[in-house]
Design brief:
The chain is of the alpha/beta class and about 290 residues long. It is built from ten helices and ten strands. β2, α2 and β3 form a beta-alpha-beta unit. α6 crosses α7 and α9 packs antiparallel against α10. The protein binds adenosine monophosphate (AMP).
């Protein structure tokens, strides 16, 4: 695996792959890699060559009072894990490479960026869309791999790709969870043992909602109050929001219809966690994927 630190060298590698008509796959990450990230890398390896993984803790997607400075960084261990999976290039630029002095441009995907996570984290998705567009311009991937764990992020990136004719296929992969249901996240490392135990309530709430849906409950209000009651049983967990939204518009729905997300965000101590379930209509039945 080759370690790439500069934009100019990464552009040359990406450009060459494009000219040779190779299917370059990009997995953008902020590092501190876990099985969720590695599941994306394995899928990229299965269908792309070469595979590029980027590790960049993007300062523009963190608010002023958020955890940018303490966000876990583990380049040494990440490098070993990626090498073992046969990744071809690890792109790990310093911040000045991505945002040189005088950088001014940003990307804002209207209508999808100020709701849900965007309401709680103003500016977050402007930072995400900006860095993803930069990465796409630099690496020039045919396919890019993202986790459904960040469902709103995926929706915004797909919109950006369509609106700007970027031509990159966006591949979305399932949420990888711990055996007790907690969605893997680099931020789980912040949790103290009691918080770690309490955090499983997010998954328990989604599983309870899934059972209600299986028994025919379609009203969003009913499902959400059950989720709120479940989460309230854990005093260490403070719900930020629970919403059931249309997968395309991200607008709240009154009752389940075709495809929806049940989206949760909560604080456990100082740690913000998100999770979700995908609800898909198949005939008269609704299938829930957690
Ligand atoms: P991050 O490093 O948090 O920016 O995440 C990089 C990519 O990994 C994003 O596309 C995430 O959605 C994805 N990801 C993070 N956690 C998980 C998980 N538990 N399962 C699947 N994908 C994940």
């Amino acid at each position: 695996m080759e370690l790439v630190h500069t934009v100019s060298w990464m552009k040359q590698i990406g450009g060459k792959a494009l000219r040779e008509d190779r299917v370059l796959g990009l997995v953008p990450t902020m590092g501190a890699l876990h099985e969720g990230h590695l599941s994306l890398v394995r899928e990229a390896k299965r269908c792309c060559s070469p595979v590029v993984v980027s590790i960049f803790v993007n300062p523009k997607q963190f608010g002023p009072s958020e955890d940018f400075s303490k966000y876990p960084r583990a380049l040494g261990a990440d490098r070993v894990a990626l090498e073992q999976l046969g990744v071809d290039y690890l792109f790990a630029p310093p911040a000045e490479e991505i945002y040189p002095q005088g950088f001014r441009t940003s990307v804002f995907v209207d209508g999808l960026s100020d709701v849900l996570e965007g309401r709680s984290r103003p500016g977050h998705f402007r930072g995400v869309a900006t860095v993803v567009l930069k990465l796409f311009e630099i690496v020039q991937p045919r396919r890019a791999f993202f986790g459904r764990k960040d469902a709103q992020q995926v929706r915004i990136i797909k919109q950006m790709v369509a609106d700007l004719d970027l031509g990159t296929d966006i591949v979305v992969r399932p949420i990888v969870r711990e055996p007790d249901g907690l969605a893997l996240s680099s931020r789980n490392a912040y949790l103290k043992p009691e918080g770690r135990r309490a955090a499983t309530v997010l998954h328990r709430a989604l599983a309870a909602a899934s059972r209600e849906i299986a028994s025919g409950e379609l009203k969003a209000g009913h499902l959400l109050s059950m989720i709120q009651r479940t989460i309230a049983t854990e005093p260490l967990v403070a719900l930020d929001y629970a919403e059931i939204v249309d997968v395309d518009t991200l607008e709240p729905v009154m009752a389940l219809r075709k495809n929806c997300y049940v989206l949760l965000a909560a604080r456990v101590g100082g740690t913000r966690l998100i999770d979700n379930a995908l609800v898909e209509q198949t005939g008269d039945a609704f299938r829930v994927t957690i």
